[in-house]
Amino acid sequence: MPTPPLAPEPRARTLALLVEYDGSDYHGFQRQTNHRTVAGELERALSTLLRHPVTLVAAGRTDAGAHATGQVVSFETTTDVSLERLPIAASAVLAQSGIAVLRAVEREAGFSARHHALARRYRYRILNRVAPSPLLRRRVFHVRARLDLDAMRAAAAQLIGRHDFAAFSAGPAHERGTVRELRALEIARAGESIDVIVTADSFLHRMARLIVGTLLDVGRGRRDADDVAAMLASGKRTHAGACAPAHALYLEYVEYAPPIAAETNRPPTNYERLP
User: What is the pLDDT of residues 156-187, one digit of tens each?
Assistant: First the structure.
């Protein structure tokens, strides 16, 4: 009797997921032993679904309390899970967690959500009116004083380009140094809402929040717009402004070639329409 053919070895696959989450109740994205994190929750859900341990690589390690509408993670699997079904199943498991998987795509072997990212874009949301919003207290940063957007834009213009952003980093020495390319820094108002949108090839620890905090100091009249170039040149954290709170920061889009998803994460025209 002939020997039956051996079953083929399972094919290794590299998957990338587009993920949205409310970071209010998490101690940041990166997994930690003693704290609840987005990565820890997401890895548990995927491990349950795929029936093997899953270790994620993320495009951005968002801080405690920060959110994402366009985070990207990658991982390896040997399962034949459907790319269409995976977001549905994962989001169902994560239904009470404040995390949702929006899309799944298969990428080439060796793809890394972190190392293959070409740029990241963050959006910082400010509610600029006399009274705070009880409904949005974990979504936006309330600033009572009327902000001078012209001064903020003049300050922002000095940060665009390739610079050493050591003065805008609150973390330990980075393995790649502190030079980054800030590609765009926009400030947009819609009624009582102000968004600061910052795009760079990559970010240092708390870099986006320190940039926003410095621009807010300028907008309040506590610093001159012309001071920002000197802050940047100093390379000293103590020369830059305060670090804006994390709860109003959103990782909005990560650029890849080819794209993981189209740039569809546009904000509503006012915060009353936020979920």
Answer: 999 999 999 999 998 766 677 999 999 999 99
Domain CATH code at residue 47: 3.30.70.580
DSSP-derived 3-state class of residue 85: helix
Please name which of 71, 66, 63, 122 lies closest in space to residue 101, comparing C-alpha atoms. Answer: 71
| Domain harbouring 180, CATH code | 3.30.70.660
pLDDT of residue 13: 94
- Same domain? 123 vs 248: yes
Active site residues: 63
Question: In this model, does residue 42 exceed pLDDT 50?
Answer: yes
The DSSP letter of residue 79 is S
209 within some domain: yes
Task: Give the mean pLDDT of 84-111.
Answer: 96
Domain of residue 229 covers 119-259
Nearest to 18 by CA among 97, 111, 113, 110: 113
- At residue 74, the 3 state secondary structure works out as strand
Q: Please tell me whether residue 229 adopts helix, strand or coil conformation.
A: helix
Q: What pTM, to 2 d.p., does this model score? A: 0.90
Q: What are phi and psi of 195, to 5 degrees?
A: -115, 135
Alpha carbon distance 156, 216 (integer Å): 11
**Are 170 and 52 found together in one domain?**
no
Convert the pLDDT of each residue in 191-238 to its tens digit: 999 999 999 999 999 999 999 999 999 999 999 999 999 999 998 898
Q: How many CB atoms lie within 10 A of CB 232?
A: 21
In angstroms, the CA 244 to CA 251 distance is 15
Same domain, residue pair 250 and 179? yes
Question: Beta-carbon neighbour count of residue 237 at 10 Å?
Answer: 16
Instruction: Tell me: do 101 and 126 sit in the same domain.
Output: no
